[in-house]
Design a protein that fits this description.
Rossmann fold; binds nicotinamide-adenine-dinucleotide
């Protein structure tokens, strides 16, 4: 795909099909639906970085703002070798929908750099982050567009972004990013927020389906990064049995349940899950098809497709990752009675606590972790119930219901603001 084929990437096309289906189902104003098919703006930047061996390598970076009707853009920064403009534009659209569904006063944006952060030194990553921030600095800002962590980035990357932006302005502007370290204005509970939010929606789904969440409940998690590991730990804490987890190199499986403390110790030492002595190896493909009650894809997009949707064996599929399921797979899962908690609902804990971080920063008044988690639980469960109601009203699946919930909010705001000029 050529760099500028913004609207033809398969992921973007899939997102458009879902948007169209939701718009048709709810009979959304066609002018609103038409506008949402395109991002507001997209910036492509070259990021020259002096590598440790002295040569300059030029990376490509992106920041896309999809819609900012409800407030400043909000969305993560991804460092991954597969990052493309079209993919980033797709995630920016999803952020618009996620923020609108949760009634956050924020718009949708996303950014990223095509690179392999695992093959870069700390110094190289820092120099790349600083130059990228400088290149996009005219787009971002606490009232304009606020980046956060995503795949391959973390609170350290956010700290470098905040520092670079602040150096350019001349004084500290913590509100330019969220997901930053506590010591420079981050919030308690942000690191685990996405995984925690996933679990809150699973608890709501279990209630709705009359399922108990206890030691007989088996849970499989694909991707053991920020989202996957937090979700797994929280599911274990409420008493469920985590039977399989994975990273990009493959997974580990123990039908009796994995001891996550021991897994953590193994991971610290070996930097990979593979080789953990109290489990069998399992591929990422096979892991998704393991029998379980709850499946949490928390890695990358398009893992559940038309090829494996009929083999998925869970009762609840909670999408920790963004777009882990393709458009065609949705219908198969729905027909098979698998209860899907769609990404814009399941993984919104991250952006919600990012919003809390932004609010606390503006007020210069910080909450306790308990306060953060209580507020998160309230908003996750209320929004889950709202989506369930919409799903019953329109007799659609949970994904289309979630998009309808977002479009109801956004559509009203777009129409009342009107189209400029
Ligand atoms: P991360 O980089 O911390 O972790 C990603 C994990 O997935 C790692 O364990 C990695 O080894 C694994 N992985 C990568 N490629 C894989 C593959 N092909 N197969 C299996 N595993 C693979 O990233 P994260 O922040 O945990 O994000 C994971 C997903 O959650 C992404 O889709 C991201 O967009 C989404 N998400 C993240 C947040 C957040 O707050 N971090 C919020 C909402 C959604």
């Amino acid at each position: 795909m050529s760099e500028f084929e913004l609207y033809t990437g398969p992921l973007y096309q899939n997102a458009l099909r879902r948007l169209d289906l939701a718009a048709e189902t709810m009979k959304l104003d066609p002018n609103v639906a038409g506008r949402l098919k395109y991002p507001k703006r997209a910036l492509v930047v070259s990021v020259p970085v002096r590598m440790d061996d002295g040569h300059i390598k030029v990376f490509t970076g992106y920041r896309v703002q999809h819609n900012m009707t409800l407030g400043p853009g909000k969305g993560g920064i991804r460092y991954h070798p597969a990052v493309t403009l079209s993919e980033i534009a797709t995630f920016a659209m999803m952020m618009t929908l996620k923020c609108a569904l949760f009634q956050l006063p924020l718009g949708g944006a996303k950014g990223g750099i095509r690179c392999n952060p695992h093959k870069m030194s700390r110094g190289e990553k820092q120099r790349m982050t600083r130059r990228f921030t400088s290149e996009i600095s005219n787009l971002i800002g606490p009232d304009k567009d606020i980046p956060a962590p995503d795949i391959g980035t973390d609170e350290q990357v956010m700290a470098w972004m905040m520092d670079t932006y602040s150096q350019e302005v001349g004084f500290a502007i913590p509100g330019v990013v969220t997901g930053k370290p506590i010591v420079i204005g981050g919030t308690l509970g942000r690191t685990e927020a996405t995984g925690r939010g996933v679990v809150y929606t699973i608890m709501e789904a279990a209630k709705h389906l009359n399922l108990n969440l206890d030691e007989s409940t088996t849970v499989v998690v694909q991707g053991f990064g920020n989202v996957g590991s937090s979700a797994a730990r929280k599911m274990a804490k409420i008493g469920c049995r985590i039977t399989a987890i994975s990273d990009e190199n493959g997974g580990i499986y123990n039908a009796k349940g994995l001891n996550l403390e021991k897994v953590h110790a193994h991971l610290q030492e070996k930097k990979a899950l593979m080789g953990f002595s109290e489990a069998d190896a399992v591929s990422n493909e096979a892991l998704l098809e393991l029998p379980c009650d709850v499946l949490i894809p928390a890695a990358v997009e398009e893992q559940i497709t038309i090829k494996n949707a009929h083999k998925i064996q869970c009762k609840i599929l909670a999408e920790g990752a963004n777009i882990p399921t393709t458009f065609e797979a949705d219908q198969v899962l729905f027909d098979r009675g698998i209860f899907v908690i769609p990404d814009i609902l399941a993984n919104a804990g991250g952006v919600t606590v990012s919003y809390f971080e932004w609010v606390q920063g503006l007020q210069k008044y910080f909450w306790t972790e308990k306060e953060v988690n209580t507020k998160l639980f309230e908003i996750m469960s209320t929004t889950f119930q709202k989506v369930l109601e919409i799903q019953k009203q329109y007799k659609c699946n949970m994904r289309i219901a979630a998009i309808i919930g977002a479009l109801q909010q956004l559509g009203r705001a777009m129409l009342v603001r009107g189209f400029y000029p």
